[in-house]
Amino acid sequence: MSLKDSQVNMYEHSEVKVQLLKLYLERYLNILNLSPYTSDVNLYDLFCSEGVYENGGKGSPICILEVIKKIYDDNIAQGKNGKFNCLFNDYDAEKVEKLEESINRLKLHDDKTGKLEYGKKEYKDILKDVIAEINRFRTEKGFIFIDPYGYKDIQVKDIKELLKSKKTEVLLFLPTQFMFRFEKNGTPQCLKDFIEELLPAAEWPTSSTGLAFIETLKDAFRKSIGDEYFVDSFIITRDKNQFFCLFFFTSHIYGFDRMLDAKWQIDEEEGRGWNYENDSLFSQAVKTPNTLKYERNLNNFLNDFKSNADLYRFTLHHGHLPKHANQILAKLQTDGRLVAVQKDGKVARKGSFYINYQDYKKNPDKIKFKIK
Q1: DSSP letter for each residue of 199-250
Q2: Which positions ≥6 away from 125 have C-beta within 8 Å?
Q3: Which one of 22, 67, 174, 372 is least enclosed by Cβ atoms within 10 Å?
């Protein structure tokens, strides 16, 4: 598959990438816009491409506008009229012009939903504008989607700058298969620079597989960006042993919760990614989540008392959802292995675990747990 062909036709692995974006936006944008603490939501697609591909595939800008239209209509019905402002940018001016034509033809934007701007700047130039804008946010929130034609312009310091205001989420696509291929042999300067930003090249471990490279990269992102931020990955397997990856960054624990929920909707067994052979995005078969590793970690974590807030953070950091924690705790309780007590020391009501975002914020010490 040539690069030229991939830019004019949408392939299944690219559709998965956009599907994850859509699932996340459907969950989180609605919550943001209904929040009394948020006014406008600003969305930036910095490599937007042309939107509609020759084979009819819908790219990220089309997906974003379709989600906005639905959420805006729903929110107006509920009395909330916050705006969704979009900036679609690509250094290829012809692609931007085609995108604008498609949006107008499909009638995907109405000024009542917010501003729509188009950019035709190089990535580094538009990035400066976006960083300056989000650093002026007061009650606004921002979402930045970065899906580059490679990775030579991507720098870790830029991700940090985008996150610094703590009012943004970043979704970054990286061609990790190509990065892994040149990790140790024939490493281009741009990859050397990228790795050196995360940790000294001498400390970078040799990856045995493309998946191992992704895990190393995710861990390095976490250490570099710091504990106050959440980082996770979504792996896209295009062909056998060909792995590409979306990385999600946020300072907001509930934004992270919603991204994990979107991942688990696509990959109901592992919550890790999409595989062409398993075709989990489009399959109608009911699948059971694999929680064995998480359950082992949870057993170790609960060797002394932990609060419901502790358990909520632990669960998300291990890539799982509150419902997974609830299922495991319910089984432990049925087996007589779980101690669950209220703040006053009384035994908690059976089946009441309070592992969710609302109780994390309002009742972080409502219940304490320990395994006997």
Answers
A1: S-GGGSPPPSSHHHHHHHHHHHHHHHH-TTSEEEEEEEEEETTEEEEEEEEE
A2: none
A3: 372
What angle do helix axes 189-198 and 210-225 make, rounded to 10 degrees? 50
For residue 144, report the phi and psi dihedrals to the nearest 5 degrees. Answer: -120, 125
Query: What was the pLDDT predicted at 72?
Result: 85
Task: Write down the CATH number for the domain with range 3-275.
Answer: 3.40.50.150
> Would you tell me how many other CB atoms lie within 10 Å of the CB of residue 68?
25
Strand partners, 249: 170, 231
The number of residues in the chain equals: 372
The crossing angle, in degrees rounded to 10, of helices 210-225 and 156-163 is 50
Amino acid identity of residue 124, one-letter, is: K
Distance CA 314, CA 369 (A): 13
Please give the average pLDDT of every successive group of 10 residues along the chain, which has 372 residues: 47 79 90 83 96 85 94 73 92 96 95 96 97 96 94 93 96 91 81 90 86 92 92 86 89 94 90 67 59 94 96 94 96 96 92 96 96 92
State which H helix or E strand residue 43 sits in. Answer: strand 41-45
Half-sphere exposure of 167 (CA within 13 A, CB side): 21
Q: Exposed e or buried b for every residue in 260-285, given b needs 16+ CB within 10 A? A: bbbbbbbbbebbbbbbbeeebbeeee
**43 - beta bridge partners?**
86, 143
Q: What is the DSSP letter of 201?
A: G
- Confidence at residue 284, expressed as pLDDT on a 0 to 100 scale: 47
Residue 288, both tokens = 């059971």
DSSP H/E element including 133: helix 123-134
Residue of 319, 255, 279, 286 whose CA lies nearest to 15: 279
Question: Which of 39-60 are b and which e, b meaning 16 or more Cβ less than 10 Å from the residue's Cβ?
Answer: ebbbbbbbbbbbbbbeeebbbb
Structure confidence at residue 184 (pLDDT): 73
Q: How many CB atoms lie within 10 A of CB 293?
A: 12
- Among the listed residues 75, 67, 73, the one whose alpha carbon sits nearest the alpha carbon of residue 22: 67
Domain ranges of the chain: 3-275, 292-371
Q: Read off the tokens for 247.
A: 């990385």
In sequence order, the β-bridge partners of residue 244 are: 236
